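Could you help me review a protein record that somebody else here produced? This is what I was given.
***
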Amino acid sequence: MTKRLAKYTLPDRIIFSIVVVSLTISSCFFSARPIYYDKEQAVAERAVIQFHELHDQGKFEAIYNLMDKPASDVESRAQTLADIKATFETVGKVKSSKLAEHNVFASPVPGFTSQVKLVYDTEFEKGSWTEFFVWNIKNSREPVLAEYHIVPKTNGPDSPK
């Protein structure tokens, strides 16, 4: 005795096709790779140490090379280097730095395993500042600086005026 398989109607086939295509496309954007939060945070923290060392040595070009940037943005490069130098002249060298906050997320940027956001309370030669770093981590070991902001620390007697 043979069973006859039910025939799929045209709307069923269309829905099935849409689901298959959707799953295929979404797999290109969403990765199922594991994120090792402690390891990825440690990579970003080491990158901050490197950033501060380069800052103190006045190696602005090397700091620029840590950044995620468009390859052909020459005007932006010159402006960014000028901004890095101006920041150094404003704050001076790093005297001490302490991690205040940290968060590790799955990266929203294709090609990266995670995004690590770090906030540091940093004492510079010319006052206390709060630094905000966002690092995109590639392959759980290669940090790329996505964002950097620095603001005067406003709670304390050493706050810049």
The first strand starts at residue 94 and ends at 106.
